[in-house]
Please model this.
Amino acid sequence: MKLYEYQAKEFFSKHGIKIPKSKLATDVNEVEEIAKELGKVVLKSQVLVGGRGKAGGILKAQDVSEAVEKAKELFGKDIKGFRVEKILVEEMLDIEREMYVGITLDRANKGIVIILSSVGGMDIEEIAIKHPDKISKKVVSPVWGLRDYQIRELLYESGMPKEYFKEVSSIIKKLYEIFVKYEAELTEINPLVVTRSGEILAADGRLNIDDNALYRQKEMAERRELAGSKLEIEAEEKGINYVKLDGNIGVIANGAGMSMSTMDLIYLEGGKPANFLDIGGGASAELVETSINLITSDPSVRVVFINIFGGITRCDVVAEGLIKAFNKIKIDIPVVLRLAGTNEEEGKEMIAEFMKSSDVKLYMVDTMEEGAKKAVELSGGV
Amino acid sequence: MAIIIDENTKAIVQGITGYQGSFHAKRMLDYGTNIVGGVTPGKGGMEVHGIPVFNTVKEAVEETSANASVIFVPPAFASDAVFEAVDSGIEVVVCITEGIPVHDELKLYWKVREKNAVLIGPNCPGIISPGKSHLGIMPYEIFKEGSVGIVSRSGTLTYQIAYNLTNFGIGQSTVVGIGGDRIIGSDFIDILKKFEKDDQTEIVVLVGEIGGADEENAAEFIASEMSKPVVGYIAGITAPPGKRMGHAGAIIEGGKGTAESKIKALEKAGVRVGRTPFEVAEIVRDLYKK
Model:
């Protein structure tokens, strides 16, 4: 799960990392009250997407009336597909210098990687390209933890000015503590700013927690808000792996690899998938039914391609779910179906029997390649 | 020969009394896998499909001299089950469980290495050496004994490709589903090394997907160390950045881990990459004809 900036900063602050004065507002009146208190402010839209500054999601205000005016502009605005409903109103800082510190998982080395840069304010890829000499990385063993010498190496190798050593070193330690304690996948302070008065503050913050750990990270789980499109949220609530895409062919498959491969085949045939939907392993008839409902409630879907290779998943159970769905809701669009693997014969027989008395436009195919071709043909192009 | 498991493998099933554990223990037995025991704390003394159940792995190993274990334990307890297995002397651990917290997986990885054991998974379909042994949940009916080694991050795609090969009359030496999580016990290179040394394996199929750089690293290894031909497939050409595509590990982050970069790296290393699972099987068939 991704935390909002204001939530991430709450945890930073709790662990002794200094943050600017700020308060969360959910309407214009609240913004006005907070601006009266803080003076010059920055209005930061709270959306779970990177690059919001460039997308117009961060606005500066010199006084209260400007804050109100900007808040009106910001509330309800669409930032990269996310609607602004909360604004963090923060004191405007007098910035001397921007830096970067981030911690994430290192897949290749099976460790935790700490990245420090003595410059900041842009994304880390950009820093790496523009200022490779200002950036330093260390892989930390998840067994032995972060050692002091590694922090020293980070400080020296990033070209960090000596006067910041003590404070930055303490911030790295605290951030690492947060990363481990809350089982984060990523945490980042960008920028970590030095103000003209010499204070070092986390001016922005990211904290992403491993979903698989939420059962024991109660404090985080409580803060969870599902984000994404309406259908994505609905799918997540029902435990279905669903991602909305911008094409017109609805895809249902079993297994992540098979689902991705089915999307790719559609693309190779010249079509465009409308979504990724993985029913997982050993799906129940109910789950199949729910998946069909979900896909067909997306108005951009012109044809559905169901691609099942049963292992743990049983084709007869999939057929049962499909028939239930077809009986309950009227599906006008064509459905291409490929059933193979465990209990294939039983599943195919059930479908054949059902089709005798149904007007669903169902096309049975033998292979996934054939199915993709058929689906693209029926979609009538992109 | 085969890699990792063969007819001499003696396995236990951790979580054998559970729904999945019991069902798949039966299937593995039916396939001819030498399952010698099961472990469920508190259920020692029971029998499942005629197999004795023990309270601890230590006890199971002492009584049966098992050297492998398949884990069907819920995510909250799976990490502990792997620790228990390797600390009890188990050499090959196959962890089927999906949804293990990644910080647990980091520790698991190093624990298994410390003990010089082999971990397959987590979040994987297991491993099969057709005709010899199967540890996992694969639909074993579609496999056939032969000389193609398969290593894959995706369960269902493995089945699809093996099925296509079998339909062409081409069998497999060992098929390894390494799993879809970010931190896994054995990666492509670990398995490729074993296939390179295995006298039964003539051609290797590598099935990858978006996320991470394991395929790119594998490509470097193939270019410098592999003498056997490798055929590749990468899923997720159309996957959008920043979205997890079902697997915890299948995500394009910071512009890295795209299918395109993986295909490019593999092709540069001399790997022939199929555009569809069917094409992968065709390429393998053509290689045999030569």
Chain A has three domains: 21-91, 95-222, 230-379. The first helix of chain A runs from residue 5 to 14.
